[in-house]
Design brief:
Layout lengths: L3 H12 L1 H6 L8 E3 L19 H4 L9 E9 L1 E2 L11 E2 L3 H20 L6 E10 L7 H14 L2 E11 L1 H5 L3 H10 L4 E7 L3 H6 L6 H14 L4 E5 L8 H14 L3 E4 L3 E3 L3 H8 L7 H17 L3 E2 L4 E3 L7 H8 L4 E4 L4 E4 L2 E5 L3 H9 L5 E6 L2 H12 L4 E2 H8 L3 H4 L1 H9 L3 E3 L3 E4 L7 H6 L4 H8 L1
Parallel strand pairs: 1-10, 2-5, 2-13, 3-4, 5-6, 6-7, 7-8, 8-9
Antiparallel strand pairs: 9-12, 11-12, 14-15, 15-16, 17-19, 18-19
Helix pairs in contact: 1-12, 4-5, 10-12, 13-15
The structure holds iron/sulfur cluster (SF4).
Length: 458
């Protein structure tokens, strides 16, 4: 696309970003964070108290009725990427992975023993990590047999699996993809991050751009129609020109959807050291916002729509249902495995964050839940706004659930973000405006309670 950078800079100038900085809605150069990654839960993990699993799954607690989403964390990878803050172990033996799957099976049995999930159906399933396609063909088959035998999965369920280029290109890569298809997986999510080979090396990814494209083509040939590709704006050495090339290459592949989540740097990751030493190699905050605008303009021209904020989707049928339900509809999610986070019966809770703690809890026949809270009505409202704004919130849903409009409950915040032009609404939906989208996490934080802010920032 000609003049993409020039056009995006003009849009950037019109958005009056300094006005946001003055109002305290400000991005850091790159998101540096000791307490949380991008906002994916409310309250965030670091603000949650410790909790006993029996408080959530007591004999007296309510049954879970209706549909839920299932997430399974598989913490295995072929190498550790420079920026990775996920729980993932490198090159583990097949025996250890089997042991992990045995433990997941016990976790499911413990949950089902509580009797709370007898009347539920899974509307979406997500296998994430880690890299699920690191597991063997037999292990992938085992996971699906397990889920199918323990849960009722709706026939039209969205079933997503994360896959990496190097595992697809491996000797048994095609066979694994076929196993996924046979088990009704209908959405594949592949992390490419960039097509720039030098940056891929810096990131310690285990493929080059040619191989990534080849892996995508294999997945298409095997039969996957709905493929999401992740790109990351804000990487070291990534200029606006490099980003434009990334967009052009992805445009040629025309996947069903593209995720462009900006880089977030956790202090525990290797990329934090690089950032400390060579900050100048990272795009500054203006450029990261510009990259977002470039992506928005680029995909708009190709007919993609943006929902949720960092997802660009070619057609409505490819929209990422699990994320929309989780963020915009107060959808229940049951997460299995190490570091999984669940939202069940108004409890937001987390499983242990290390594999050893996770295994140890299950070995003692205890659910591996360690932090969580039951949300009060006002905190449920906050949660819906914090997460839901990224994908749009149905006014009808908010009023039917809480009996009030968001602007009547959070008057001051609403006035602030509305007057800055960060949100817009029609008769049905409240959503972030074009100007608000690159600042979605900063806007979300406006809805945090004082208590959570204190816990988080002290
Ligand atoms: S492939 Fe994903 S989960 Fe694995 S190390 Fe890299 S970023 Fe982390």
């Amino acid at each position: 696309m000609k003049n993409l950078i020039k056009k995006s800079k003009e849009i950037f100038d019109r958005l009056n970003i300094p006005e946001l900085q003055k109002a305290g809605i400000e991005r850091e150069d790159v998101k540096i964070s000791s307490h949380s990654h991008h906002i994916v839960t409310y309250p965030p993990l670091s603000a949650l108290p410790y909790i006993k699993p029996s408080k959530i799954y007591s004999p007296n607690s309510k049954k879970v009725l209706g549909e839920i989403a299932l997430y399974l964390h598989l913490p295995f990878c072929t190498g550790k990427c420079l920026y990775c803050a996920y729980v993932s172990l490198v090159n583990q033996s097949e025996g250890f992975m089997d042991k992990y799957l045995d433990t997941v099976e016990t976790e499911i049995n413990l949950l089902l023993k509580s009797g709370k999930f007898n009347d539920t159906k899974l509307n979406t399933v997500y296998l994430g990590g880690g890299t699920p396609t690191c597991l063997s063909v037999g292990q992938l088959n085992r996971i699906f047999s397990l889920l199918q035998s323990k849960f009722t999965i709706k026939t039209d369920a969205e079933i997503t699996v994360e896959a990496s280029p190097e595992t697809i290109l491996a000797k048994d890569g095609k066979e694994k993809l076929k196993v996924l298809l046979k088990n009704n997986v209908n959405r594949l999510s592949m992390g490419f991050q960039t097509f720039n080979d030098d940056i891929l090396k810096v990131l310690r990814r285990r493929y080059n751009s040619k191989q990534a494209i080849e892996a995508y083509k294999i997945a298409k040939r095997v039969g996957f129609e709905n493929i999401n590709i992740d790109l990351i704006p804000g990487l070291p050495d990534q200029t606006l020109e490099v980003w434009q090339k990334d967009l052009e290459k992805i445009g040629k592949l025309a996947p069903a959807s593209v995720t462009c989540y900006p880089l977030s740097i956790k202090q525990t990751t290797a990329i934090y050291q690089l950032y400390q030493k060579e900050r100048q190699r990272f795009p500054n905050r203006e450029d990261v916002v510009l990259m977002h605008i470039m992506a928005t303009e680029f995909f708009d021209k190709l007919g993609y729509s943006q929902k949720p904020v960092y997802w660009f989707t070619k057609e409505l049928k490819y929209i990422y249902k699990q994320q929309i339900s989780k963020w915009s509809e107060l959808g229940r999610q049951l997460a299995l495995g190490v570091s999984g986070y669940s939202f069940i019966n108004d409890f937001q809770y987390f499983n242990y964050l290390t594999v050893s703690e996770y295994l140890e809890a299950i070995n003692k026949s205890i659910l591996p839940i360690y932090k969580g809270i039951k949300l009060s009505k006002v905190n449920l409202m906050r949660r819906l706004l914090v997460l839901g704004l990224k994908a749009g919130i149905s006014k009808k849903l908010f009023i039917s659930r809480f009996g009030k409009k968001p602007k009547d409950v959070f008057k001051d915040v609403w006035k602030k973000i509305k007057s800055l032009g960060l949100v817009e609404e029609d008769n049905e939906v409240i959503r972030l405006s074009y100007k608000g989208r690159p600042f979605c996490d900063e806007i979300s934080k406006e809805f945090y309670s004082e208590k959570i802010r204190e816990n988080l920032f002290r």
